[in-house]
Amino acid sequence: MYRFRLHDLAMLETLPTSPANLTEKLGELLSHSLSSTARVEKLDATTGRYTVTLRGILDQDEGLPE
């Protein structure tokens, strides 16, 4: 099973990416986190533009298989 690691975070900023690919990668990040929160930083109802910040603690237990 794939295990999300700290060095994988850089790939989240790779552009361009599809919403489906970003959904998959964020899902992997969240599922391998011990805790996580999301905060809406900005929301423009006119344009639909938004900024969301994710914070969490990545599970770095090396005892689990990759």
Write a structural description.
The chain is an alpha+beta fold. The protein has one domain. 20% of the residues lie in helices and 30% in strands. It contains one helix and two strands; from the N terminus they run H-E-E. The chain has a two-stranded antiparallel sheet with strand order 1-2. A hairpin with a 6-residue loop joins strand 1 and strand 2. The protein is globular and about 50 Å long. The mean pLDDT is 87.
What does this entry show, briefly?
This protein is α+β, with helices and mostly antiparallel strands and 66 residues long.
Number of helices: 1
Percent of residues in beta strands: 25-35%
User: In order across it, which strands form the biggest sheet?
Assistant: 1-2
* Total count of domains: 1
Overall pLDDT score: 87
Helical fraction: 10-25%
Distance between the termini: 5 Å
Question: Could you give the order of the helices and strands?
Answer: HEE
List keywords for this structure.
66 residues; two-stranded antiparallel ribbon; 1 helix; 20% helix
List the helices and strands and how they pair.
Layout (H helix, E strand, L loop, with lengths): L18 H13 L1 E11 L6 E9 L8
Antiparallel strand pairs: 1-2
